[in-house]
Amino acid sequence: xxxxxxxxxxxxxxxxxxxxxxxxxxxxxxxxxxxxxxxxxxxxxxxxxxxxxxxxxxxxxxxxxxxxxxxxxxxxxxxxxxxxxxxxxxxxxxxxxxxxxxxxxxxxxxxxxxxxxxxxxxxxxxxxxxxxxxxxxxxxxxxxxxxxxxxxxxxxxxxxxxxxxxxxxxxxxxxxxxxxxxxxxxxxxxxxxxxxxxxxxxxxxxxxxxxxxxxxxxxxxxxxxxxxxxxxxxxxxxxxxxxxxxxxxxxxxxxxxxxxxxxxxxxxxxxxxxxxxxxxxxxxxxxxxxxxxxxxxxxxxxxxxxxxxxxxxxxxxxxxxxxxxxxxxxxxxxxxxxxxxxxxxxxxxxxxxxxxxxxxxxxxxxxxxxxxxxxxxxxxxxxxxxxxxxxxxxxxxxxxxxxxxxxxxxxx
Length: 412
Prior knowledge:
Elements: E1 5-10, H1 19-28, E2 32-37, H2 47-54, H3 70-76, E3 80-86, H4 88-96, H5 102-109, E4 114-118, H6 122-126, H7 128-139, E5 143-144, E6 148-151, E7 157-161, H8 165-179, E8 197-202, E9 207-208, E10 214-215, H9 222-233, E11 237-242, E12 253-257, H10 261-271, E13 277-280, E14 287-289, E15 310-312, H11 316-322, E16 330-337, H12 341-352, E17 356-361, E18 372-379, E19 384-391, H13 392-403
Parallel strand pairs: 1-2, 1-3, 3-4, 4-5, 8-11, 8-13, 11-12, 13-16, 16-17
Antiparallel strand pairs: 6-7, 9-10, 14-15, 17-18, 18-19
Helix pairs in contact: 1-2, 1-8, 3-5, 4-7, 8-9, 9-13
Family: In the N-terminal section; belongs to the HFCD (homo-oligomeric flavin containing Cys decarboxylase) superfamily.
GO molecular function: phosphopantothenate--cysteine ligase activity; phosphopantothenoylcysteine decarboxylase activity
InterPro entries: CoaB-like_sf, CoaBC, DNA/pantothenate-metab_flavo_C, Flavin_trans-like, Flavoprotein
């Protein structure tokens, strides 16, 4: 069987032991994995472990099996290279084209997608040298995921923690799927969002009535998260503004948490200032209670409750569409409808002024909370693109397929 060939590069950080979990997930799902650890990585996890988990001898030296020219062949034959963890030193070498060991040679010869999953102390990640190296790698089409925030080595806490191996695996799966390798095709991956900044909203807002109750909706955030993860797999820098969800954060995505429509509006306007595209997939409450009760509203025996007066929330989609933060910025809206779906969608597209509108029918067991979705994507040029019932990831791919050709020429 023609299995996707993955090179797992491991550099010398304490998080190397977590790469074992990533390796296990890759091998158990049918990927042919070759591990290339640096000399420093072997101080944390030995060669025997990598060989046992991958089913192949770990490639550690340029001078081993010289007749096979490993410093060239490993990269040439790969469908994906993922470096996890990627230290500051490794990122610097990759950005500057240095090749003093087998892993850095492999990175220079690879013509497939490359993912870096950094792990280091916060000060190292935030250093201007590291940030410039990351920007250089991203500009060239590599995917450098954002490290997580949490406990680091010793007592330190901050940004720089190795991302969840399950989420790195999911990113690898998405990248390979897009490149066609998981379907047996030989198509090369087009990182068509490389160098772009996209903003995606997801989940539902909650408008407080009193300290206990709120006005909300059924949105799970799954479609917005799929849009964010898919954009990251296509090379974008992604800001995900998430309402009330219970989903794990997609790897490689900056997540901003919000609760109410007003908070979401503030976060979106801030993030959209330098965004190439904004996709409003969140279910933003149209109304909020006019009065917030500072104490719990009590049930009184024999009395009916006072009516709840609602007021309109800001129309964030219309505001974004009318006042683009930068020339050529693309705005995508979502319309959840229960009847006259397309007619209502066409009217909303004209009213909101966005470039694309994803229209889907919602209701019990439809769209909200489901892993599947179906929709029709309406465009201002009159085209209508139906997306059949299937995984929300498929709808996300179609949205970006329509967004990319509508973006202005990329400016480095």
